[in-house]
Give the backbone structure.
Amino acid sequence: MSDRSLLVVVLAAGEGTRMASRLPKVLHKVAGRTMLHHVLAATRAAGATRTAVVVGPGREDVAAEVRRIVPDAEVFEQTERLGTAHAVLAARAALEKGADDVLVLYADTPLVRPETLGLLRAPLAAGAAVAALGFEPADPTGYGRLVTRGDELVAIREEKDASAEEKAVRFCNAGLMALAGAHALSILERIGNTNAKGEYYLTDAVEIARAAGLSAVAARADADEVAGVNSRVQLAEAEAILQRRLRLAAMAGGATLVAPETVFLCADTVLGRDVIVEPHVVFGPGVSIGDDVVIHAFCHLEGARLESGVTIGPYARLRPGTQLDSGVRIGNFVETKAAHIESGAKVNHLSYVGDAHVGADANLGAGTITCNYDGFGKYRTEIGAGAFIGVNSALVAPVTIGKGAFVGTGAVITSDVPDDALAIARSRQVVKEGWAREFRAARGKSPSPAKPKG
Ligand code: UD1
Ligand code: CA
């Protein structure tokens, strides 16, 4: 990447009225992360040296998300919403510190890739003062039009201010702009608001630069990449585009997705080689999958790390804090949470394993439940290597099952079991011969069950 310094200014002051939400628009999520996070991740990957984010008045929640992702970012408040140029100037203090390149982005354009930011920025190194990013939307209505002459960008005309001839242009302004740091402030300061909306338009930077004898150019992006999100419908469209991108990347990286369109990934999902993902699997945030893992149909994973050769599902739910070491098998209707399960252990049917550590090669029978919560606190269960837990056992935490120990079927285990011991914890079976026959007779029913009809 270039050694030119890069100041990124992200505009996130929009109200997002059309989202009909209590949450500010830029905190809505696509592929498991906020739109703001996507934009900041792209700018970081594109080599941002400094980051400034412009937020609406009192938007502490947006500021907190900025600091979570880029701790040294500067956050500025735009107190009045007077237009995109006005918004950029809210970050004046950051602009005054100077940078070779300045890149302006919208936080509601989450699909933009770092390569495209590089493409937009490249003309600055070649001497341009302004570069705008253009695309051809299916419907240009509402967008600013890029008026070009050869390679030169002559003007950006907002639709409300455009002539019939300019409206016929299909090459539209995506909204992202690169400005030469040396000229950015003086250009921005000269932008006025005598236009149809009475706003300070960032797009006027093009004509102002040209009037000062500087040059402006346009770069080109795919419509899918610069789609802005203004409504829940567009949020879902962005999700679909990003899911497709993530699925293609997963397959290119060596994972088999049997029915890719039914698998939902997060922006941070990591899949190893020769992973097989069957249909209808959902990956939440923080999942990392090693090589040769098989994920059967209908699994849901979040905050889980699976080492090589693990098999899970169908119908497994792995919750945050799950760590499955190599070769672990998790079967159907099993839920895990904050559980470290060591190599070769098996939890094959109908179990809940939470706040637990399970040693290597242990076997948890069908219906094993760690009773980790008493309504107030959470307690841990320790199961030693090679232990065998009989079917339908309740392990009441805090409790330790020793290495190689046996727990008999149907146990309620309330105290520790030593290594290699057998624990039986169920009431003894009582058999009373003829009791049922006498019971029925006493209630005036036939002494033996009715014969089946037919
Ligand atoms: C803007 C562009 C238009 C482009 C379109 C692409 C201008 C004048 N027009 O139009 O050429 O085709 O984006 O979507 O720039 N914002 C603030 N503070 C403000 C105003 C806007 O933070 O005072 C932020 C908004 O939150 C939004 C972005 O800037 O993220 C764009 O603002 P918006 O009002 O949606 O601009 P458009 O009219 O769509
Ligand atoms: Ca807009």
Observations:
- The chain has a mean pLDDT of 96.
- The two ends are 83 Å apart (CA to CA).
- The first strand starts at residue 6 and ends at 12.
